[in-house]
Write a structure and sequence with these properties.
Helix content of chain A: over 70%
Structural class of chain A: mainly alpha
Number of helices of chain A: 14
Distance between the termini of chain B: 53 Å
Helix content of chain B: 25-40%
Shape of chain A: flat
Radius of gyration of chain A: 24 Å
Oligomer: heterodimer
Largest interface: A-B, 53 and 62 residues
Amino acid sequence: MGKYILKRLGMAIVTLWAIITITFILMHSVPGNPFANENKNIPDVVYQNLMRKYGLDKPYSEQYVIYLKNIGRGNFGESMKSNAETVNEMIARGFPVSARLGAQALLIALIFGPALGAIAALHQNKASDYIAMIVSIIGVSVPSFVMGSFLIQFVARKIGWIPIGGWGEFRHTLLPSFALALMPLAQMSRLMRSSMLEVMGQDYIKTAQSKGISKMTVIMKHGVRNAILPIVSILGTTVSNLLVGSFVIEKIFGIPGLGMFFTTSVYNRDYTLIMGVTVFYSIVLILSFLFVDIGYMLVDPKIRLTEEGH
Amino acid sequence: MNRKITLLLSLILVVAIVFTGCSLNKATGKKKILYSNNGSEPGSLDPALAQGTHESWVLENVFEGLMTFDEKGELVKGMAKDYKISDDGLVYTFTIREDAKWSNGEPVKAEDFEFAWKRALDPEMAADYAYQLYYIKGGEAFNSGETTADQVAVKALDDKTLEVTLEFPTAYFLELTAFYTYMPVNKAMVESNPDWAKSPETHISNGPFKLVKWEHNAKIVMEKNPEYYNAKKIKLDGIDLDIIEDQNTAWQKYDGGEYHILLDPPTSVVAQLREEDSKELTLGAQVGTYYYNVNPDVEPFNNVKVRKALSMALDRETIVRDITQGGQIAAEGVVPYGLMDENGKEFRDGVGNLIEYNPEEAKVLFEEGLAEEGMTLDEFNSKNFILLYNTSESHKKIAQAAQEMWRTKLGINIGLENVEFQVKLDREKAGDYEISRGGWIGDYMDPMTLLDLWWSDSSFNDVNYNNPEYDKRILESKTLMDQKVRMENMREAEKMLMEDMAVIPVYFYTQPYVTKPGVKGIIKVPIRYPVITYADID
């Protein structure tokens, strides 16, 4: 197990290097510069000063080496748009916010998604099945910005206790978590439903039932436990997507998370911020996959045995 | 199972009913706090590093320059209790108020201004707005790295006397000193702590308010500054600004009673409020013009008749009435309303309307122009010329209207292309466009703020307009003190620009904002966001 983790970490470092290099090439091949502004251009002298301040007047190869060295030390540098925070500070401030939002959304999705799917499977083609499936279709089809605006208009405006956007207390997290949870919740419920249907048709279920085991135990211990595996496999991407924040949800609800940096940094050509969030997201993604794979190995002895070459 | 669900639902219902009663109306006891939204996170609250619209509203309340705007929206003396201008208009001597204090109680000194201005011009600072200080002799040279700071002609003669020498007589220099790049900073604090502007504890300022909280991307809180010399004129105890980017969410907060004032509501909301003739809506004056660049290096747009025809075929009234719907004004030239001439009257009226809407004449003119370039209408249409604009719903709608007007009135097919604004800037600089959307918001209250754009050497001259007569007029207006001569020069210059139709002006901007009843004392200065400094709440 230890050797396996080391091997994976080694691969992670190589992957990160590749990501940094490709990102560097891509962001410098797009036209534009960090200092442009929609209603104004800046005079050439000011532009030269800015280029020099951020080291952008050096040849690309030199910039690349400087980037690598700094990233190796964990320093993502100064943002080119914001003079108030360094990139490290922006990520350090935004990540806990996005992570909290993501974690809450994940919790909602994990609790209600499989539950909805299981209920639907167990009452196949009855009312609860249809209701559950309609909910999941809505969750998958309605864009998050529509859901967000809908929630603000029809929930936040009507119930005083629920704030219209902003961040700070628990009640600020309710609507955005729910809006963010809807898509993964819907996906999980559909996955669970089809997985459950397949599992419940298996022979071992019939065996358990004929042994006289209580219905609830059959469902939970044998049904759900086996049916949940497909959900574990999408957990990796789901977790990393949720943890780094949703640009749309955060923008609509005015939440100071990491999500907005992914898009605004590219729009602004803020090279240091682009690199910072890309590397950070890559690390989160790589680690999520690593943990999920380890989780698989712990849960399913077949995989562990294969990996260790027996 | 069913009983449990029923119980849960009833519980939720009870909770909802209980909390609906709670109002989010910010009745904060005896304190008068003005609530609003800043729209975007400031890049910096250091006046030297401010990049523009995201910072100005905050800076204009926590700092004050030599001159400032009062509660009537007039330019008055601020930090300066007096000023003298030399006869040649080159040397300004300011006397700083005795009672001018920093928020930490220290007196504001002349050296704070000298330090701040030289710092903003320092090439190492790479300040975006350094060019606002180029009016000072030696300013541009220092910023270009050609000379040193002591060559910049601003000097503190003593604790309370500041002397500035300008490159040439600048009629609007006094107004410039109210602009945030000219605001002072506390020399002692800034020298000892380069990160002073990053946190409220070290953010020392000299204005009516001071910064007490800055939660990045979330909130900015300002409190009344008791050390401000005119504190008794300030009715508010504080200003609380959210940082919510989404226009619709901000509008929901205003509509829900959480804000006293909101800038820049969504266009559909503005249109609706206008229809209802709402008292809450103000279509604030703004110094800005929306126009189309026409590339003279692409045939047949080199022909002045072709460009004029394009302008004549545009029904601007329809565009502002039915498309932009924000009370914008159909352009009559490039210089908008709100700028006064030597008689204190609108410059715009003094020049007259240089724009004509005449579709029949336009068609004739267009054909004449084409013929002069040896091109037929079919040849023109086969070239698939494009109107380029940066991606946005409003730019798209206006472009579609223009496209349709040109199609029906001139019989030409102009395609539309939207690109990200960075890409558009790049293409304009490279001359890779035929027609492109442009806009400019003025920096100071003088027609020069627009006319300067098309001086042949200007970095902002995207159409490469090169008219020595025009340049001559611009130079004279920049270097003379006599307002009558200056204004006359600028009137002639604008007429020239429109005779040559170097760009096609479309409309003059407005700045719509909404205020709740009971909020008083908000003044709209055309060159600034609504001034909330002197506001009062019932």
